[in-house]
Amino acid sequence: MGTETKIQRVASFETHPDRYRHWKLSCAGPVATLTLDIDESKGLRPDDYVLKLNSYDLGVDIELQDAIDRIRFEHPEVRSVVVTSGQPRIFSAGANIKMLASSTHGFKVNFCKYTNETRCHIEDATANAGQVYLAALNGTASGGGYELALACDAIYLVDDGSSAASLPEVPLLGVLPGTGGLTRLVDKRKVRRDVADVFCTKAEGFRARDAVKYRIVDGAFARSKWDEGIAGVAATAAKKHPTKSDRGIAWSPLQVETSEDGLTRTYSSVSLTVDAAARTATLTVRGPDAPPPADAASFHDQGAKAWWWRVWREVEDALLHLRFNHDTIGVVLLRTAGDSDAVLAWDALLLANRGTWIADEALAYAGRVLRRVDNTARSLFALIDAGSCFAGTLFELTLAADRSYMLEDDDAGVTVRVTEASAGLYPMSTGGSRLAVRYAGEPATVGKVLGVGEPIDASTANDLGLVTLAPDSIDWDDEVRIAIEERASISPDALTGMEQNLRFVGAENCDTKIFGRLSAWQNWIFQRPNAVGDQGALTLYGHPERPRFDWRRT
Amino acid sequence: MGTETKIQRVASFETHPDRYRHWKLSCAGPVATLTLDIDESKGLRPDDYVLKLNSYDLGVDIELQDAIDRIRFEHPEVRSVVVTSGQPRIFSAGANIKMLASSTHGFKVNFCKYTNETRCHIEDATANAGQVYLAALNGTASGGGYELALACDAIYLVDDGSSAASLPEVPLLGVLPGTGGLTRLVDKRKVRRDVADVFCTKAEGFRARDAVKYRIVDGAFARSKWDEGIAGVAATAAKKHPTKSDRGIAWSPLQVETSEDGLTRTYSSVSLTVDAAARTATLTVRGPDAPPPADAASFHDQGAKAWWWRVWREVEDALLHLRFNHDTIGVVLLRTAGDSDAVLAWDALLLANRGTWIADEALAYAGRVLRRVDNTARSLFALIDAGSCFAGTLFELTLAADRSYMLEDDDAGVTVRVTEASAGLYPMSTGGSRLAVRYAGEPATVGKVLGVGEPIDASTANDLGLVTLAPDSIDWDDEVRIAIEERASISPDALTGMEQNLRFVGAENCDTKIFGRLSAWQNWIFQRPNAVGDQGALTLYGHPERPRFDWRRT
Q1: Min CA distance, B401 vs chain A (Å)?
Q2: Chain B touched by A161 (CB under 8 Å)
Q3: B398-444 tens-digit pLDDT
Q4: Are A389 and A336 in contact (CB under 8 A)?
Q5: Which pLDDT band holds residue A459 (cuts at 50, 70, 90)?
Q6: What three-state secondary structure class fits A265?
């Protein structure tokens, strides 16, 4: 295998436009512009690689994610977002090859997952917040550069006789386009599959004429008409969806304390505690610390300081730290602590105010974080015991878990509450609710469970199939401990594969194909000597030697 | 990595019940019984492994495939098939672990694909030929043993206090159940996903009580009531679908000559020629050598000697030889030679006789072979030039190809014919027609193309998007040669991954999840040191040492 450089810990997934090194964000009324102008010397590992040709690493993508969030939550007046380049003749060369070639297998996989989620968030902003992303390719977009464009609602390419869109990964690097390119090409844009085959094996890609002809892009403008052309399509796109609010909320920094040993992160309403020896982590979500605001307007006024935003942003941040910085942790214990009625009061506020910008966005954001939970390659066990508040929206955490254990102890009053929050409010990537997926084999139970209304004790939850096991207080400690120890002793690769195949029941779509089918093939290829061996294409890219392949086809 | 023993060539994919070493097939009126009684000393590599506990290798599965075909085509009177064991207390322990541990990566992947196809053929026989398969687990069914049961329409387990159904691959071997187990558990049988999680990590599995409770099986009988119970469900199942014919066709041996160097296989209507140095193979399908029979009855009387059966059986056999015995071949050139009108005359015969057993089965069989083409991990280029007969059903070969090249030469009269054969007669695994998949982005073109009726020349085919490229006779040789050389020079792993992601456009279902998502994860795991390293679980299974894992989760 090629040289593996261990990536340093990712210090933070937070940033701010004032600190961006690689992107410029400007909002002018309904049109925002996101300009990629990468500082090649400011990669996360500047000694190992230089970010030439507007190529990116995780640091660039963290800024992109921040920008998407700020446009969405701070600037709801924005209706169209132009994504373009600040460098001459190049839009982006995609993920930096030397960065990939010098990363561990695990980092490569997690990096691809993060960038894929970011691109899904672009599509989510277009679909659910009416912010239409437009890729304005004012120079060549290759590999991940073109894949970023594919996540946008429409793509325009400058027609200058040289700029092209391309996916050169297969012919040049011996790997796949890893950010959804293959799937979005044929499944989203519905490019003819033989044309896609030619396109994906032609390193130089298609220039404007062929790119338009074969729907690789939606349109092209000559360089002399470029600015005017893009301004025109941006203005038109901005009229597509009505503005729901002209005032956002400030996306303020998260409050978090990290223990000296780096094993505990304590947020305002969430904590993540790692037990390195046991290879487990506990993610605890604390219920509301105060009653919800009286109405949507007050909620809006509270901004990102409101419990709802804090708790979901903190869960998301904790998951990202877990993925990148605690790679030997195999089992995540999902816990809650607090008052179920208080959780339901928050749910009630949001449900009563659906249709307002603030409530709709708050629900959509929780849904996005829950999808990140589904996509986290760790075993997830929900532990429902005394003092927990798995009610309404927080009950979704148990449905996202691979297993749930509920303490049967009437004295402790352990209950769960299933509400309309589980009836489709937070769709999985597959489009359905987690409750419907759970009862795929007995769909009538969905209605039965939703009809209960009152708090459900362990025995009833067990009978309804709402939890995996309901040990009593005598057995609880041993049963849970043994289950966790057993889980933590199993091959982590086999568990990742198993969970990926059991979690996404039902028909697949573009998103789940990207996270399931495409990513799994990429993971395989990322291990193969033809890509990452001493003479593999990824290893030797940029070197004078030609790769040498083992020609056996499997 | 663990020791890799190179598998010997697979001499033949054909067999006959008289020569079965591991299965017994008995047909008694509407009920057939397939009894697995593996001769442990008769594996394909008897020096390397012993087929203990009714565990299987490729040789066992080749017999199973033969039996499925003979029941279907020789015994259409059979309405239910009982699959059971001839050994005490064990149904089957699945694929032999020592065989897997001592096989090359490529063999493991191809072996899993073959066994997966065989299980799909069981489901196809149930769905399309009304032959209901019943798994009668008269002893423990673990791993691939239980997965074989999952391919059946219903599963019964003996309730004897010890026999169990289990999928112990994840906890014991550090790999996935590789024959569709995970997918069929949650997607076909709709077992609750947390129950599936417990089941798939519990090495000893579930005995009858829990297995019935959680839908792992459909029913159970005590040993004392076993024979009677199974006879009863078999008799009931046999009444589910009416018999369409009480007379089959003899599944006679294929005629094939192999050249001394092993590089050319010449069948009656198909040839496969391998160019090892260029890493290409040419699969040539010859059109009918005689007019079709006058009617369905005459076609039935001709039996497997009829062109239709020969040509599709020969294509299937050639594909299997290519996959297992020519693993360095990256590009397969699909050619036809013959008279288009003669092909269409065969199509007309079958279409006119839909509803008869013989015509329906002939069409279904071609469909199955075409799905094997889709699932073949080689680049497929269709070459449409002088003397070819890509008409009607044979035109599907161009639609299954990754690319198609058509010679534009009016003098040579090169044409293709698109007929209702491309309108859904041969569904892909995804359920749709290849033509609809091709025009996913412009669905109106499907009707336009189907409406043409007459022979379509290269220029028109190109304009319609029916072919990838249509070079004229001046460019043809160079253009095709360069395309093939370029393709053959690309990393074979990247090509396999790319093709898997471009071929199956649209929503995924159980079959495509097995071949796409599940298989890709398994391929990844089959490469990982945690499974196949010196201290991996698969390598050390059966040894006193415990596996040692790299705990990093990805």
Answers
A1: 8
A2: no
A3: 999 999 999 999 888 999 999 999 999 999 999 999 999 999 999 99
A4: yes
A5: very high
A6: strand
